[in-house]
Each structure stands twice: as structure tokens, then as C-alpha cells.
């Protein structure tokens, strides 16, 4: 059986009286693309925030690479190999694409305020060059070479999403958390993004946990899908299994009971 890179154990989270998550548990196999789906307000972003450390669950644990990270801050989780992108773009609009991506690499540099003044005399210069090479690899991979010097804020939405992905990849994460990577994209941009996600999973070996509303994309690229509904886990499984489940059809896809019954009758006959 494939080892789990991430285990979420009995996580609950409330905002005042609002229960955003109730006793949610699941495991993400290393090397997989794992999608979280569910209606608006189901708790998807809350779950991603509990994994990344932006929110602390009221109870339960988040285990990453067999280490309990529940009480660690987001930066510490990033150091351990967790990268993320946000539902709303979080780039530095006035900075170039390259500088935005280098920000992602910054925390990996061993050079600090003490060794900084010794830049030319230390290994820092070599380190910086190695980082630049890795960043260039990502830029090639995501086909954004032509905009590397452009100011991020001037780019189309689809390109900015791609730069955000590049910045998350620059951390060399083992696990990447993507919050609605296709939101606001046209069909062509969605197809491109789906291909990049699959390739970063297959070529760079990065495990992906993503929230996505586009069911076509979810079905196409996910190895496993988990459904949240009113903060509770409805089910998880292979994409086909999840989509065929009557509860999911009812809760998420908005298909009425009569349609489900007639479909079940058709299958039985
Ligand atoms: N910071 C917050 N303060 C108060 N309530 C919140 C906060 N964040 C989320 N909630 C509430 O928690 C519940 C789950 O919200 P969450 O954003 O996690 O759902 P979601 O599935 O990501 O929704 P969407 O698909 O609309 O992004 C909702 O009832 C929401 O109003």
C-alpha cells in the first residue's frame, strides 16, 4: 500500500458558533493528486488552511511526513516541504515575475544577515546561482520565460496564476496545496493549468492537494477525491466512485432523487 504523506486526524474547527469542520479525517497517498470538493461553505478552504497552518484546528491533528505539525506555524510547515497557492492571487503586483518567484526561494537560502556581508567571500554566491538555476528550470517548465521581466500586476489572470504556481514550486515542496487553481480561467487556460498540475505531479514528484469546482478537471486529473458537505466528510474514493455515489449527486451535483432512482432502476434492469 502507498505510504501517506499527509494524515488529517479528527480535525474540527469552529468560528464562534459556525462549525466549519467537524471531525474530518483522511489520508493523502504520497505522489497522488488529491482533490477536495463540496458546495460553497462546505469547509474546503478551512481544511486547506488547517493543513497549511493558517488556522489552528480546535481539535484533531495534522501529520505531515509522519511528523505532527498541528502546532507549527505556516513558515515552519513551508520549511518542512509544504507549498501553497491562494484562492485570490497573492503576488507582489509591482515586482517582476522573476522577483516574485525568487521570493518563494528566499527562505531556502542559508545566507543570512550575519553571513550576508561576506557574500563575495562565502558560498552564498554559489548558493544563489544554484537557486537561480532551479528557478530557471521552473520558468521553463511553466513556459513563462517570455514574461520573466514583466511586472506581475500587468499580466493576464491566467498568467498570474501560473506565476503563483511557480512561486509555490520554488520552495521545492513535497506537497503543494492549490486553492481553486482554475478559478476565473477560460477553457484554454484551464487545460494548460491541468497539464502543469499533472506534470508537476509526475515529473517533479510533488503530491498535490487541491480544491477545485470544475468537475471535468477533478475527474480528469485526480487520483482520489474527498467530498465535504456542511463541514463533514461525506466520502472519499476514486473519482468514478465518488461521482457515482447518490449522496454526492444529491449534495453536490444537485441531482434530484427521482433522477437517481430512475438511474438505479436502469442499472438494475
Ligand atoms: N474567517 C472566518 N470567519 C468566520 N467564519 C468563517 C471564516 N472562514 C470560513 N468561515 C465559515 O466557515 C464555513 C466554511 O467556509 P469555507 O470557506 O471553509 O468553505 P468552502 O467550502 O471553502 O467555500 P467556498 O467554496 O465558497 O470557498 C462557512 O460557513 C464560512 O462562512
What does this structure look like?
- One of its GO terms (molecular function) is ATP hydrolysis activity.
- InterPro entries: AAA+_ATPase, ABC_AA/LPS_Transport, ABC_transporter-like_ATP-bd, BCA_ABC_TP_C, P-loop_NTPase.
- This is ABC transporter ATP-binding protein.
- The chain has 269 residues and is of the alpha/beta class.
- It folds into 2 domains: 178 residues, P-loop containing nucleotide triphosphate hydrolases (Rossmann fold), CATH 3.40.50; 79 residues, no CATH class.
- The chain contains 10 helices and 10 strands.
- Helix 3 packs parallel to helix 5.
- Bound molecules: adenosine-5'-triphosphate.
- The site of adenosine-5'-triphosphate has 11 residues, from strand 2 and helix 1.
- Adenosine-5'-triphosphate binds next to strand 2 and helix 1.
